[in-house]
């Protein structure tokens, strides 16, 4: 997996431990990123940088939550979510 | 000849234990002379500061000419040999000086200083005997040549001993040279009968003694190996009794001591709150007392490794470490003070960080390792010091052949093991990354089998566990309907069960993050949140209990209880301390209590977006003051697009298009607002 994210920024926001959290959950993160890419999100890296913790959900739970959210938002879900990341943060909180 | 009383008088004067001295070798009473003994002790104690223990171990030095001792000491002092090894092997000083010099030079040139330091006794052996053994037994390993040379047996007897060893598949180690060929044969017979490994200390006993020991061990369910053969059957019985009484595990180093000594040691350790582990039994009670005293004086943590040294040696080590600003703990006690000085010198010369692992090796070995690493462009740190220079060269060769990055974990394995691991990984199409080197090739094969059986993707973290542990983890996860992936392999099955129990008890969703904490840590976090009336959501488990407490305190003191929200307290304290004052300065801090996604930006990013919002003539917060401007909620790419669009609209001045775009944006913002309201309602319903 090749992720183009600003780790320094992430360390500043979430603390140095974020690196360890990412490394320890890298296979879950990878699966969840693929899920978002399949759903045609074009700024998955931007979403990951803003809400890394939502990617720590086990893939099944992650899928269920995103599917439920998409159902609620409707067809325009990509624009709506990428224009307000807090929607995701609340969903996965 | 010297009278017992006179010798006792000398011992008292020079603080030497008479019983231990005569117990080691009573010949001193027949061969020692009052004046000679005093002269040598003056030299050893006053001039060289040799500790009494080393003299008690080697009484023969007291009845050989003082001139030989002085000449040999002067010669050796000028050489590279570690003098503390000579101090522990004083009999070499009684040897004819010319012989010592010849043997020293020969061993140095043909074997290396390492062998002289490891088997300093070889300096008391004539060079002609060493060379004869080399000629006669050409297949013998260098260290075995030296062991054979040091032994008391003739070349003919050694020949017979090797025949017995070959026939009975006895590995030739130091202790083999303690028995004659006939004795070795008898021991082999009894070991075969009771299936005892024919190594180490079994060769310290006779056939009959081994039989008795086996009987006692079987009766008391003690594993029959290694150190039990250091004691007689009767002594083992007593030791068992004392250990049971004091709840000490009956194995390993307890057999280094008598039952009485164990009792004393237990008493002393209890008094000083020292954990009764294996290494305390390497020392006598009185030595432990001295060590404790020195450690307390120098504020050294009293752990296992300090008991590898005497109190005097610890004092010397402390002095050297303090002088060189080395942290006094762990591995430093593997070395003498003298060796530490040499290591420091080599490390400074080669700009190597002086940390724990360099003390696994001697200064000479470090120099060789540095040479090999530089030649092969390997970073000189940590795990390389677990290997010798020769082993590193072999590892480099294997890694290059198999295109494996030469760093970190590869040095946990030998070149042969790496080859086998590569073979196992290639066969099973596993990427050869760092974590596979935690395991042997056989273990990898077993893990692959378990993973395939359970349809688990074979990624790095599975190699943190054994195949058996993976099976257990799978069972626990299935039972609790947890997906078997990622961080679950960071914990044992037992720990996972505990974590799940705590999560269920506190109605927490189980994410990958919870397995980065122990059940106790999770409980602590829950306690902190409950005490502060903070909702327990997933995000609070991203920080440690201590960090959360620090954030809560900071928020309570500076901003009030309204700010104690999961998505605020779970952020990095340093970032909060920068961002919150800025939000206060621009008079929007209050909005954080209802909308906090702005905290997923750094201060610089917030400032940049703040400037942009001002530039496009909008407000930082919406009219109801409950939500930040949606610019702060844009993903990175969408923010860039938005900025580009704005800049583009300014430069092209295509008013018509701009108006249309703005209208589109307004429609989108309306939709976002509607979704936010719906979500809020749905969340409230769920709660």
Q: Can you describe what's shown?
A:
With 93 residues, chain A is mainly alpha-helical. The two termini of chain A are 25 Å apart. Chain A has one domain. Chain A contains 7 helices and no strands. Chain B has 687 residues and is mainly α. Chain B has 32 helices and no strands. Chain B has helices at residues 4-13, 18-24, 27-31, 34-47, 52-56, 66-77, 83-87, 97-110, 113-118, 127-136, 142-150, 155-167, 181-194, 207-219, 233-246, 259-271, 285-297, 311-323, 337-349, 363-375, 389-401, 415-427, 441-453, 467-479, 493-505, 519-531, 545-558, 566-569, 573-585, 603-615, 636-652, 655-686. In chain B, helix 15 runs parallel beside helix 16 (259-271) and helix 23 (441-453) runs parallel beside helix 24. Chain B is elongated. The mean pLDDT of chain B is 85.
Provide the descriptors you would attach to this structure in a database record:
heterodimer, A: 93 residues, mainly alpha, 70% helix, B: 687 residues, 56% helix
Kindly estimate the percentage of residues of chain A that lie in beta strands according to DSSP: under 5%
Mean pLDDT of chain B equals 85
Distance between termini of chain A? Answer: 25 Å
* Percent range of helical residues of chain B: 55-70%
Identify the overall geometry of chain A: globular
Number of domains of chain A: 1
* N-C termini distance of chain B: 97 Å
How would you describe the oligomerization state of the chains in this entry?
heterodimer
**Kindly state the mean pLDDT of chain A as a whole number?**
86
Helix content of chain A: 55-70%
Beta-strand residue percentage of chain B: under 5%
Write the layout of secondary structure elements.
The complex is a heterodimer of chains A (93) and B (687).
Chain A: H1 7-14, H2 17-24, H3 26-38, H4 44-50, H5 59-73, H6 77-83, H7 86-92
Chain B: H1 4-13, H2 18-24, H3 27-31, H4 34-47, H5 52-56, H6 66-77, H7 83-87, H8 97-110, H9 113-118, H10 127-136, H11 142-150, H12 155-167, H13 181-194, H14 207-219, H15 233-246, H16 259-271, H17 285-297, H18 311-323, H19 337-349, H20 363-375, H21 389-401, H22 415-427, H23 441-453, H24 467-479, H25 493-505, H26 519-531, H27 545-558, H28 566-569, H29 573-585, H30 603-615, H31 636-652, H32 655-686
Helix pairs in contact in B: 10-11, 12-13, 13-14, 14-15, 15-16, 17-18, 18-19, 19-20, 20-21, 21-22, 22-23, 23-24, 24-25, 25-26
């Amino acid at each position: 997996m090749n992720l183009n994210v600003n780790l320094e920024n992430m360390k500043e926001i979430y603390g140095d431990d974020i690196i360890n959290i990412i490394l320890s959950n890298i296979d879950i993160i990878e699966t969840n990123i693929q899920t978002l890419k399949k759903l045609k999100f074009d700024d998955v890296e931007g979403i990951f940088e803003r809400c890394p913790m939502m990617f720590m959900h086990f893939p099944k739970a992650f899928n269920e939550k995103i599917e439920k959210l998409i159902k609620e938002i409707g067809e325009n879900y990509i624009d709506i979510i990428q224009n307000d990341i807090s929607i995701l943060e609340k969903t996965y909180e | 000849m010297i009278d017992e009383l006179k010798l006792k008088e000398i011992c008292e004067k020079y603080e030497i234990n008479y019983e231990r001295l005569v117990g080691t070798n009573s010949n001193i009473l027949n061969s020692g002379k009052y004046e000679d003994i005093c002269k040598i002790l003056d030299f050893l104690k006053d001039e060289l500061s040799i500790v009494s223990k080393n003299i008690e171990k080697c009484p023969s030095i007291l009845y050989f000419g003082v001139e030989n001792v002085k000449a040999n000491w002067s010669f050796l002092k000028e050489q590279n040999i570690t003098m503390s090894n000579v101090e522990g092997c004083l009999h070499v000083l009684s040897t004819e000086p010319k012989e010592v010099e010849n043997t020293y030079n020969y061993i140095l040139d043909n074997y290396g200083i390492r062998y002289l330091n490891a088997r300093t006794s070889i300096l008391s052996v004539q060079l002609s005997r060493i060379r004869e053994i080399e000629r006669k037994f050409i297949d013998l390993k260098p260290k075995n040549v030296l062991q054979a040379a040091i032994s008391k047996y003739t070349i003919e007897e050694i020949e017979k001993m090797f025949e017995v060893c070959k026939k009975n598949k006895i590995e030739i180690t130091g202790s083999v040279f303690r028995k004659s060929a006939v004795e070795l044969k008898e021991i082999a017979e009894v070991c075969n009968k009771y299936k005892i490994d024919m190594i180490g200390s079994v060769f310290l006993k006779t056939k009959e003694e081994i039989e008795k020991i086996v009987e006692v061990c079987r009766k008391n369910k003690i594993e029959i190996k290694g150190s039990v053969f250091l004691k007689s059957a009767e002594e083992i019985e007593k030791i068992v009794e004392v250990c049971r009484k004091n709840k000490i595990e009956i194995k390993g180093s307890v057999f280094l001591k008598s039952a009485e000594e164990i009792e004393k040691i237990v008493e002393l350790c209890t008094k000083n709150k020292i954990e009764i582990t294996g290494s305390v039994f390497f020392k006598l009670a009185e030595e432990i007392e001295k060590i404790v005293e020195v450690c307390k004086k120098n504020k050294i943590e009293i752990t296992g490794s300090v008991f590898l040294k005497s109190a005097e040696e610890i004092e010397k080590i402390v002095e050297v470490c303090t002088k060189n600003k080395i942290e006094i703990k762990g591995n430093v006690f593997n070395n003498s003070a003298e060796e530490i000085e040499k290591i420091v010198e080599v490390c400074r010369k080669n700009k190597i960080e002086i940390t724990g692992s360099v003390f696994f090796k001697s200064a000479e070995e470090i120099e060789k390792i540095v040479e090999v690493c530089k030649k092969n462009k390997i970073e000189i740190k940590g795990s390389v010091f677990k290997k010798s220079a020769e082993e590193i060269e072999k590892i480099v060769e294997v890694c290059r052949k198999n295109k494996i990055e030469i760093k970190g974990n590869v040095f946990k394995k030998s070149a042969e093991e790496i080859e086998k691991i590569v073979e196992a990984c290639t066969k099973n199409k596993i990427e050869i990354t760092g974590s596979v080197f935690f395991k042997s090739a056989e273990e990898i094969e077993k893990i692959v089998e378990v993973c395939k059986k359970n349809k688990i993707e074979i990624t790095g973290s599975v190699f943190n566990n054994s195949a058996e542990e993976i099976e257990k983890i799978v069972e626990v996860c299935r039972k609790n309907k947890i997906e078997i992936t990622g961080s679950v392999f960071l914990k044992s099955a037992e720990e996972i069960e505990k974590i799940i129990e705590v999560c269920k008890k506190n109605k927490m969703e189980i994410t990958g993050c919870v397995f980065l904490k122990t059940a106790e840590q999770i409980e602590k976090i829950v306690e902190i949140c409950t005490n502060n009336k903070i909702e327990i959501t997933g995000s609070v488990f991203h920080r440690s209990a201590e960090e959360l407490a620090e954030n809560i305190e900071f928020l309570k003191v500076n901003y009030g209880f309204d700010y104690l929200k999961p998505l605020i307290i779970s952020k990095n304290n340093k970032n909060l301390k920068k961002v919150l004052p800025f939000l206060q300065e621009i008079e929007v801090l209050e909005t954080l209590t209802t909308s906090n996604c702005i905290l997923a930006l750094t201060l610089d990013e917030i400032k940049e977006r703040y400037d942009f919002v001002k530039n496009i003539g909008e407000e930082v917060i919406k009219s109801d003051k409950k939500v930040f401007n949606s610019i702060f909620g844009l993903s990175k790419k969408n923010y860039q697009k938005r900025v580009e669009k704005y800049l583009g609209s300014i430069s092209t001045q295509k008013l018509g298009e701009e108006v249309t775009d703005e209208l589109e944006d307004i429609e989108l913002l309306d939709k976002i607002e509607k979704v936010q309201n719906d979500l809020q309602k749905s969340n409230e319903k769920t709660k």
